[in-house]
Amino acid sequence: MNNVDIRRIEDFIKTLKEDELLYMNRLIIERVKLLSQQKSTAHMAKFNIGERVYFTDYENRLIKGTIFKLNKKTVSIKTDDNYKWNVSPSLIKHLDN
Question: In CATH, what number does 52-94 get?
């Protein structure tokens, strides 16, 4: 999208009434959710139950484990030290054996 298109959209938005803006807001939010779900699904498709993976936790520690469940939005991983994590598929990498 170029600057001319963006300006035209901005000008259009300025003409809308409150109820029209609220409607447009709902449409935009639904579109963003759909795109996010598509992205998550694409990341999820890279993994299978039983695969060895790793990720870094909130303290930047390397966590290794095995996928035991693929959920709607997360991957369930059982770690080598027997803990269970639900992790976004975008944060997981395959573990080279």
Answer: 2.30.30.140
Per-residue DSSP letter, 96: P
Whole-structure pTM value: 0.68
The alpha-helical segments, DSSP class H, found in 16-58 are 18-44
pLDDT in tens, the chain (97 residues): 788 899 999 999 999 999 999 999 999 999 999 998 888 888 889 999 999 999 999 999 999 999 999 988 899 999 999 999 999 998 999 988 6
Give the start-to-end residue ranges of the domains of the chain: 3-44, 52-94
Please give the sequence-ordered ranges of beta strands (E in DSSP) within the chain, or none if there are none. 52-56, 62-70, 75-79, 84-87, 93-94
> What's the CA gap between 75 and 90, in Å, rounded?
10
Distances in whole angstroms, Cα of residue 10 to Cα of each of 4, 29, 81:
10, 17, 54
